[in-house]
Specification:
Belongs to the major facilitator superfamily. EmrB family. By secondary structure, the protein is mainly alpha-helical. It contains 24 helices and no strands. The two termini are 14 Å apart.
């Protein structure tokens, strides 16, 4: 009887209820995604105020990321036991409570404990937001629901560093957490008012204790390794080697256990579906490239071009213009076209933007910095929506929460991996280019000799001239290093198009929308 009841979908929302429900879910997602990046630029302020080192302060980011990464893939299992609406409501309320606790933290241990709670309760929020939105719209308008979701997911990571830097500079760091309270409260009230009678049927599956334990071990080890690898010089550190081995061994056991368990905590059998696998991998690698560059570009602007944190954030801001304007357009045309065409165009636009950035010089002007960012917004409008549609295509309704949770988990992990790889690769490429450039600094190179002579004529002593020359080489090496990574990113985006075309999605908005609408 319960199974039969589970297959009866709630009718789509209409009118004001649909508008309020969409806004409520989008607010919750924006608050969640914003918190993944808003604290990054505030670490110096937090560390100084709490009397700890910057290295200790970075655990504010790590603790949230580890807890979040562990809880996201549990969404499907928790949904079966708690219900979609109740779980989503609990996530919002506990997120607001933990944000308040973060702001009140008198010391670092209390702040880290609050961030762990915040990250853990944030996990189910994004996958369930997709499910609730899709179930609220008519089947034919499912892509429009995804477009509403995509706008908040794409803009929040850009807004986070800008807002976090401004709050830290002009108010105080606790307010980067306090801003969540009114937003979360409004989202919770509106969500309960609209969705309280639209919950899913519960399925009391046994607890997969072994799978849950293995998940915590391998995800926790991998996330700490990624976050601390750069500071500890990666595999020259015994700590990083041990974390890597633990992550690999626990992951191997986790995969074997989950594929054979009767009630797995994460449904890995979803990867047997071509659409889910192709869509998830293309989306996740693309997001890893996007997020890695989202961290790399402002970092390069601040360390080598002389931009402040706020100025670097503002350079990234134009990405939201076309993303906001065109996402609804993508949602409208997706039901009438093959989502693979839109996703392919999006990846080509990303490749174009990164190729344009690969041609930057140390004298780059603001216009040249902002033009690719503005164009990138066009690609972002067609990035999430068709790929999520492909990923969910062909899935029965009761598997949507688990599929969304697993897909978002892989995407979030790739975002963290992308960030770590890009920062480390930039260091290595910078060192390589610095060595190659300094090879030219010898008495047999007329250009080098002339440069030193000109500096001497300008009043510099020989040690000063050598120091100035080294500074110029360092800046140029960093420039060449970041150009390499932009160029490689462009090439990978082109290569990812092949993954898109191994999928065979049904008509956009049809099966995915129907499945999501039947999720109750």
């Amino acid at each position: 009887m319960a199974q039969a009841q589970a297959q009866v979908p709630h009718p789509p929302l209409e009118g004001a209820q649909l508008v309020i429900g969409t806004i409520a879910v989008s607010l919750a997602v924006f608050m969640n995604v914003l918190d993944t990046s808003i604290a990054n630029v505030s670490i110096p302020s937090i560390s100084g105020d709490l009397g700890v080192s910057s290295d200790q302060g970075t655990w504010v980011i790590t603790s949230f990321a580890v807890a979040n990464a562990i809880s996201v893939p549990l969404t499907g299992w928790l949904t079966d036991r708690v219900g979609q609406v109740r779980l989503f409501m609990a996530s919002i309320v506990l997120f607001v409570l933990s944000s308040w606790m973060c702001g009140l933290s008198p010391n670092l241990p209390f702040l880290l404990a609050s961030r762990v709670l915040q990250g853990a309760v944030a996990g189910p929020m994004i996958p369930l937001s997709q499910t609730l939105l899709l179930a609220s719209y008519p089947r034919a308008k499912a892509p429009m629901a995804l477009s509403m979701w995509a706008m908040t997911t794409l803009i929040a990571p850009v807004a986070g560093p800008i807002l976090g830097g401004w709050i830290s500079d002009n108010i105080s760091w606790p307010w980067i957490f306090y801003v969540n309270i009114p937003v979360g409260a409004a989202a919770a009230v509106a969500t309960w008012a609209i969705f309280r009678n639209r919950d899913s049927v519960l399925r009391k599956a046994p607890i997969d204790g072994v799978g849950l334990g293995l998940l915590i071990v391998w995800v926790g080890s991998l996330q700490v390794m990624l976050d601390k690898g750069k500071d500890l010089d990666w595999f020259s550190s015994t700590t990083i080697v041990v974390l890597g081995l633990v992550a690999v061994i626990a992951l191997a056991f986790f995969i074997v256990w989950e594929l054979t368990a009767e009630h797995p905590v994460v449904d890995l059998s979803l990867f047997s579906r071509r659409n889910f696998t192709g869509g998830t991998i293309a989306l996740s690698i693309g997001y890893g490239l996007y997020f890695g560059n989202l961290v790399l570009l402002p970092l390069w602007l601040q360390t080598d071009i002389g931009y402040t944190a706020t100025e670097a954030g503002l350079v990234m801001a134009p990405v939201g213009v076309f993303a906001i304007l065109l996402s609804p357009v993508t949602g409208k045309i997706l039901p009438r076209t093959d989502p693979r065409y839109i996703a392919t165009l999006s990846f080509l636009i990303f490749a174009l933007c990164f190729w344009m950035r690969s041609r930057y010089t140390t004298g780059v002007d603001t216009y040249s910095l902002m033009l690719p960012t503005l164009i990138q917004g066009i690609g972002m409008a067609g990035f999430f929506i068709p790929l999520v549609s492909i990923t969910l295509s062909g899935l029965p309704g009761h598997r949507i929460p688990a599929a969304s949770g697993l897909s978002n988990f892989v995407r979030i992990m790739c975002g963290g991996i992308g960030t770590s790889i890009f920062q480390t690769a930039w260091d290595h490429r910078t060192i390589m280019h610095h060595a190659q450039l300094t090879e030219q600094a010898n008495a047999y190179n007329p250009a080098f000799g002339q440069s030193i002579h000109q500096m001497g004529a300008a009043g510099y002593s020989q040690p000063q001239a050598y120091g100035l020359f080294n500074s110029m080489v360092t800046q140029q090496a960093a420039q060449l290093g970041v150009n390499d990574l932009f160029f490689i990113s462009a090439g990978i985006f082109v290569a990812l198009i092949a993954l898109i075309w191994i999928t065979r999605p049904e008509r956009a908005g049809g099966d995915a929308g129907a499945a999501a609408a039947a999720a109750h």
